[in-house]
Inverse folding.
């Protein structure tokens, strides 16, 4: 008998993943569909319902006590709606109500995907044992979440910790969000690659112009590739230091595709952090790579559902 079983959904622009997860963070049942991101909202919802139908067909479903959803954002947990940038068919889409109906009226907890990954890293990964942490996802975009006082801190709408849209360059490029010089506009994978190309980096014979290809070039000493990663590291350091100064975190965990670049990112990041995190209470801040990998969204959504269930006053782990 699984007394601590919850359902989890991880909804992004590429895939909709679902799982039944136990109280130790173990995934017992999985289901997945591609996200029909270019289709209308009801078509996207049908893919979610198919994932849930697979989960409800499991003999373990009867033990599930709640559903946690980590969704690409922005989300509005207070309204139960989502408007993912990369799923245009969903604008103020009533995802919580629709999932609740498809899941037999179980309680549903909605958080943003950055917050979900934070919950996973705090429960099982690199932020385990830290009461005050920032976890970041640096990939196509830059997202994040906060743990404060030992609890996940999603904020009223589920978006707290969205570090990608802190401005770190007042006269910087216009960001698609409407602001200027955002962390995401400098440090995301596509922007690392764009900057390298603009400054004269050229891909190899395979024509790969991804941030991973820029990272490989940086590892082999290409000065333009190195400089693009150093600029990204500087933006991340400024955002992390600002966050640490504001809420006193002691660790920043970095995941996502760009986080996998290793020393090419982390060495200049740690160096830049020492120039931004200068006050006594932020000087001991550590930076670490994420540990949870591709299941982080599911495990984090489950963590949020478990925490809400055991302590209805807290949306945290």
């Amino acid at each position: 008998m699984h007394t601590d079983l919850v359902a989890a959904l991880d909804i992004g622009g590429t895939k909709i993943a679902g799982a039944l997860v136990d109280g130790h963070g173990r995934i017992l049942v999985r289901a997945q569909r591609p996200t029909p991101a270019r289709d209308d909202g009801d078509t996207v919802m049908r893919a979610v319902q198919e994932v849930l139908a697979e989960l409800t067909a499991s003999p373990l479903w009867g033990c599930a006590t709640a559903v946690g959803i980590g969704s690409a954002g922005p989300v509005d947990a207070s309204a139960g709606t989502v408007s993912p940038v990369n799923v245009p068919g969903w604008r103020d889409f009533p995802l919580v109500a629709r999932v609740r109906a498809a899941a037999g009226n179980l309680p549903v907890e909605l958080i943003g995907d950055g917050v979900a990954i934070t919950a996973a890293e705090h429960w099982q990964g690199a932020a385990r044992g830290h009461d005050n942490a920032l976890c970041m996802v640096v990939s196509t975009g830059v997202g994040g979440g906060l743990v404060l006082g030992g609890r996940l801190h999603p904020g009223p709408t589920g978006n707290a910790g969205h570090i990608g849209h802190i401005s770190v360059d007042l006269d910087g490029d216009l960001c698609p969000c409407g602001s200027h010089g955002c962390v995401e506009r400098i440090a995301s994978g596509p922007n690392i690659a764009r900057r390298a190309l603009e400054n004269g980096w050229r891909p190899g014979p395979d024509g790969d112009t991804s941030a991973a290809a820029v990272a490989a070039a940086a590892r082999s000493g290409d000065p333009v590739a190195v400089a693009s990663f150093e600029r990204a590291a500087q933006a991340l350091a400024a955002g992390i230091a600002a966050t640490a100064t504001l809420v006193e975190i002691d660790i920043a965990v970095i995941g996502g595709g760009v986080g996998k670049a290793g020393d090419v990112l982390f060495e200049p990041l740690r160096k830049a952090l020492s120039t931004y995190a200068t006050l006594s209470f932020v000087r001991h801040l550590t930076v670490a790579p994420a540990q949870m990998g591709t299941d982080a969204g599911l495990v984090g959504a489950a963590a949020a559902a478990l925490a809400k269930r055991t302590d209805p006053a807290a949306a945290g782990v």
The longest strand covers residues 27-34. The chain has nine helices and twelve strands. Residues 5-116+294-310 form a domain with the Nucleotidyltransferase; domain 5 fold (CATH 3.30.420.40). The chain has a mean pLDDT of 94.
